[in-house]
Amino acid sequence: MPELVRIQALADDPRLGDYANLTDVALRRRLEPAGGLYIAEGAKVLRRALAAGHEPRSVLVLESSIDEVKAALGDRGTTVFAGDDAALQSVAGFPVHRGVLAAMHRPALRDAAELLARARTVVILEDLVEHANVGAAFRSAAALGADAVLVTPRCADPLYRRSVKVGMGAVFQVPWTRIPWPGGFQLVRDAGLHLAALALAEDAVELDAFAASAPPRVAILLGTEGAGLSATAIGAADTVVRIEMSGGVDSLNVAAASAVALHAIRRRAS
User: Fold this and answer.
1) Looking at residues 213-227, what average pLDDT do you find?
2) Exposed, middle or buried by CB within 10 Å (0-12, 13-18, 19+), for 268?
3) Is the pLDDT reported for residue 170 higher than 70?
């Protein structure tokens, strides 16, 4: 059964180090992957992580959330640190409005070839740096039927707590992994998928036209928030695709673009 430990403000238990300074994004990006942990924020996200087979090292909760968290943990022998608002804020460095932070063991990355073997629709995120956009792209992938998400080495961590929160835990639902880049192009081609790059280019095909006759298996390439896809990615694509805009707007936010593209591709199969 979970072990309950009540804490006070400015608690100095070394086991609480997993939750310290969570507002320092650079620090978390360095330590989470290397330390084999990630932070799940909120009871709903914790439940989704547990349902996906992820295991917690400990949980930090508001007193009011103890029963809900213990019910979610079941018979896991996990330490549950509980305290009031002041105690949790003194540890994490910010108000824990959702009442739950869980230090989760990071699972091993999946094999890319295995994920691609049967996938019909894949999303590839090239070097996205905003955690919120990564989370939103995963949410779109889950909602609109993508079979897998591939992220490049410089892409923000899909398991960073803000990514997970914005994505409502979709990262636990959609199979994903990191791939070498730009060598990952060949992995996708070898699996038989058509590479469709979303980019503004003179020779780009309108999304509706592409979706109307799209190949049965497609990998949608999406680029970083500022510059978009790299020239290498655009050059390697089988088709360059653009979303038709109006109102003087030249492009959508990358997460919004992923939703529009996935919806169009999904209509192909209906």
Assistant:
1) 92
2) middle
3) yes
